[in-house]
Amino acid sequence: MASAKRKRTEDEVENTTPRKLRAQILVNGEAEDHDAPGVQTPSRRARVLQGVENGTPRSILKKTGLLNGANGTTPKSSRKLEFQTPTKSPKNDTPNGTPTIVRNADRSARRKSNRKLVERTINGDDSDEEALDEEDELAQNILGDIEDEEAGDAVAGPQEEVPVPETPSKRGRGRPKGSGTKGPGRPRKQRLPTPPPQELPAHEEYFWQNRPGGAKTSNNTLSAQTLLNHDEYFQTMQQYEERHEPEMTFLWELHSRAYDQWVFELNEGFNICLYGYGSKRPITEAFIAHLYEHLLENVPYKGTKKTPKIVVVNGYESGITLKEVLMMVASAAVPSNLKLPNQTASLVLFILQYLSENPPQHPVPLIVNSIDSPYLRKSGIPAILASLAAHPSISLVCTADTPNFPLLWDVGLRTQYKFLFHDATTFAPYDAELDVVESVNELLGRSGRRVGGRDGVGFVLRSLPENARSLFRILVTEQLALLIMDGDHGGIGEDEPTATPRNKKILQTKSAVSDSVQGVEYRVLYHKAVEEFVCSSEVGFRTLLKEFHDHQMVESRKDAMGTERLWVPFRLEELEGLAEDLSGDAF
Amino acid sequence: MEHQRCYIYDPDQADGRSAKRQRTAKLASQAQLPARLQTYHELWSLQNQRIQATLEESEKVTQENIATFIRRTTEGVRDDLAGIPSGLIVAGPSIASHGPFFDRLGRRIKNITDSAYLVLTSGESPNLKTLLKNLIKKATSRVDDDDEEDLGRPSVSSRNAPKLLDFDLGHLQEWRNRNRVQSVVVVLQDSEAFDSGVLEQLVELVYSWRDRLPFVLLFGIATSAESFEDRLSGRTTRYLEGQKFDVTQSDEIIEKLFSAIVASTNVPLRIGPGLSRRILERQKDHVQNVQDFSDGLKYGYMSHFYANCTSIFLKDGLSFEDVSPEIFEAVRNLPSFRIRVEMMLEKSETNEIRSLLTSDQDLFQDTTANVDQGKQILYALSSAAIVFARLRHSLHVSPNVPLSSIWIRAASGDMVGSPLLRETMLSVKKLPSDKLDQLLTAFHGLDVTYFPINLSAYHHELTDLLKKSSSSTPLRTQHDVRNESLRTTVVAQKVLLSKHKANLSEEDNAYSDLVARLHDELDEYFSTTFIDPRALYLSEVLIYDLKSPHTEVFQPKPRFAIERALASPHDYLGCECCGVDNERAEDASLASTQPATAILYQLYLESGAIINVSDLWSAFNTIAGDAEDENTESKTMALFQRSLAELKYLGLIKPTKKKADHIAKAMWRGL
């Protein structure tokens, strides 16, 4: 069962053919509650479909139009073309699709939408956003229809190579993504979208950019193998040569000409903030070196063995605390024989007071890389950094990476910071600031890959006792069973087998039906484990689980009812693989 | 190093590469930088003194009032007081200036009165307990800050008494017994931000301690005293014996500062009209504060002396040896120098031109002379602006135009012939004698160095005339409306309006004559002094009016910078490969040579609110990948992942839960 299913999923991933969709409409028309485990339409698509069907009258119109004038409509999206199997298409074009069926489909769609409405009111917790989305879709449908025809008229003819059937296109107005991926020579844009209006007032532009049509996307998913893992990534990047290396060096050198100016500005009591795209660490690094030399050549150090102390803080490093920063500043500003207070608040006061009473011969330079990093944004930290920066005996040079960083500071803080801003665009990669692979995985809700995917899990499991392996196997099979069960009885609406754990999290909050998808209940798992003699007490159970937690192989959270649920952060395919491995004694 | 959280820089550990590279040759404009910077320091310290003086001056009265208030409360017999003496300090909406204000106030209060001055902010007072802890900590000096030890340490003198908790005001009392201060001034700097419950509790507590501790509460208020009162319950209000103090609002101070620093006469380097307007606008639009204002001016000075090598001519007592030959070259390249030479050519003063072009010595003398002359002209201009502002002020001409805008107009050279000037001069013409008297008196204290009109002569004449005049009504000029009447005649069913001048008395005639002379002289004065300073020879030295570094440095557009870098990387990189494509039509496909993140960003721009990563990858692969070579796919993927991670790092995208493998757009371009 599992393997068969898996195959189908792969199919699905590789080509989500519009043909299938259409087939599905027909299927739905005949028996809407038809058990169709193989048709894997995530709920989103179901809605999309429903939207299409709601507008069937128009599609009838269109079909007659097709009958009359062959080239009346054009496919809305060029990318559908590629997946179109020509053999099938005539079938759909011909008036074969009898009106009855269409009407049936129509009715069924209406019934389905009714059912959905009822469901929603019963569950009552569907977000407004979703509802809005649907309205948008409907509106988009109508609009898109008109546009379709317009665009069709405009573009029709020359670009049309094959008489292509009207696709139940739900591509939205946006540029069809992934279009022309496999056909290298073909122009990427076949249909020109309505040209973006120029120079709209800001609010209009907001609505333009947020127009409802943009939200339609395909259901393609990245296969697990596409994304690189850490090793592959670093291996590849090592060989990679930046095409723009000379230009980047040029930019870098441009900035380096300003170092003297910056030193002057710091001496005049200003602080400096560097912004712009690209890692600014190379710049601060070089500037620190420059500043160091500059200080060495001047009064307190010239001719002596003393060296200036420049405090460097890497704000992007996770887990950086204010205390560390302050201790470092204190170590540069305050002689080491003085006892420092323990609490941060008093430490700040202490440092500032010491500096006011014993002003050093030059301000203590404090360099902060990525002052807008999440770790330095926590409440209170900007205020304390500002009070440091405001002191005449501390000069701050910092970099800020995000585009909206000035919003971090209100007028008061901004005044304290006394910043001069310099554009320091470098185009340099954020090598130190970013863990690329990890952050992409997080972005896509595949944090399970953190352990190193299936292999990583296997590696961990091999080093664990038999009991732990059994427990993991139970967990995986339970989770799989839940997923499949849900896929079976939930129908199209709740069926979302390719969903990531993240998706499930909201699904859970969305409806009671899909609640069960959300991992395995802690109690259930415990009892199963006891039944299979994996463990004898809850303490033992916890110990086993802790190991999984430590390796990030298991995630847990409390659901709306307050029951704890556990799940393995993998997608269905991977879970199946895991289950196979586990039962096959691969580990 | 890069993965260390924080460290002290050590050159041995840093790679030598950057150290070597940064030794770039000094740029040509750096010639004589130290000398220029020294000039800058001299000039700016003068200006800074003025700023400080103006600030002191403007706040002096309020501060003194508050100090007197505090002294009075402490001197009086306490039992008489029904409530806690409290000052409501309405400090205005620009919260940024509150901190510095209370700092200065504290210094003054400590100087004048014998009292403890403790500032509390809302941030450190989330509840009464923490507030009191902080208060006590601040009062009883910061020698012993360690909280852990604080708890264990027995309180100093009360060995027998039960141990005090660390938020017990008993600590404060003890401290006061030792330090003998007259009163304890507690400042709640941002009273609006305090929880009103905490405020009420505090007031009640302070009230109950009033027999033991002489508290004075000062509330910093940004809105109004009324709204402050509204927040407190009636009972709490009864505990307070309030007095309101209005602080000079920051825009008034700014106006004063502007008059003192930019528009006053004795300023060697002028901040030009464009920049002044910009700085003032920033003040107005972004409720900035005084500190920012003076920082802006300071940066103007800094830029001028740092980047403009001819600025060395502003140095006092400059000798020929001080100036290096490059600077003369620079002077010869100034636009105003060229214009002057061309004008001299028209007059065929070829010898002079030759000497200016060839002899550094001659150029030096000529330049220093001209700089001095230019300074005088600008002094006169500023002086005229001041006269004009005073004139308008004493004429009560509406609308009230502040000196700053008058000066800016004058300095941009659009004063002559402006409606403002014409209107004012017209009202001078119509001036009745009593007003003229006031006007002349108002001009008394004026600095007359650059004011050629002998006002006292006019004053004498006027008093003579007034003496002669028998009637009690003031004398009027012939242009006065009251000396005109309209006559309506109906001729052939048409209405004709004609003005009719009343017959003037002899005194009025004489007076008209007097006013006419004054008017003409003033007119002459204004039209000669209100020149366009930008047309002045060597205005590049005398006036700093560059928009460029100033705006970027104070009003950066980081978001725009990043968007631009990603949307058209060519603008920054200036490379040959990416620029060409950008010049093609808008819809032309993306150049695959662009940096990966830029490509991805442009794809991102084209998409809607949520983006399918799989499709995004295919699109990216089409553009950035190499179609023929399958092996490079992993490279493309790595770039894709990196770009995606960078976009996330920049906050442009975030994970979404709506669909599998989708990301949500978090920022819209240009919004």
UniProtKB/TrEMBL annotation, chain A:
UniProt domain Origin recognition complex subunit 2 RecA-like: residue ranges: 248-424
Every Origin recognition complex subunit 2 winged-helix domain range: 517-574
GO biological process: DNA replication
Cellular location(s): Nucleus
Region (Disordered): 1-134, 151-201
Keywords of this entry: DNA replication, Nucleus
Higher taxonomy: Eukaryota, Fungi, Dikarya, Ascomycota, Pezizomycotina
InterPro entries membership: ORC2, RecA-like_ORC2, WHD_ORC2
An example Gene Ontology CC term for this record: nuclear origin of replication recognition complex
Biased amino acid composition, Acidic residues: 125-134
Function statement: Component of the origin recognition complex (ORC) that binds origins of replication. DNA-binding is ATP-dependent. ORC is required to assemble the pre-replication complex necessary to initiate DNA replication.
One of the record's GO molecular function terms: DNA replication origin binding
Native source organism of the sequence: Amniculicola lignicola CBS 123094
Biased composition range(s): Polar residues: 84-101
Homology family: Belongs to the ORC2 family.
Predominant cellular place of this UniProt entry's protein: nucleus
Assembly mode: Component of the origin recognition complex (ORC).
UniProt name for this protein: Origin recognition complex subunit 2
TrEMBL record, chain B:
Pfam family, any one: ORC3_N
Location of the protein in the cell: Nucleus
Keyword DNA-binding (UniProt): yes
GO CC term (a single one): DNA replication preinitiation complex
Keyword line: DNA replication, DNA-binding, Nucleus
Origin recognition complex subunit 3 winged helix C-terminal domain span: 559-668
InterPro entries named among the record's database cross-references: ORC3, ORC3_N, ORC_WH_C
Origin recognition complex subunit 3 N-terminal domain segment(s): 4-313
Primary site of residence: nucleus
Gene Ontology MF term list: DNA replication origin binding
Keyword DNA-binding: yes
GO BP, one annotated term: DNA replication initiation
Family under the similarity heading: Belongs to the ORC3 family.
Protein name per Swiss-Prot or TrEMBL: Uncharacterized protein
Species of provenance: Amniculicola lignicola CBS 123094
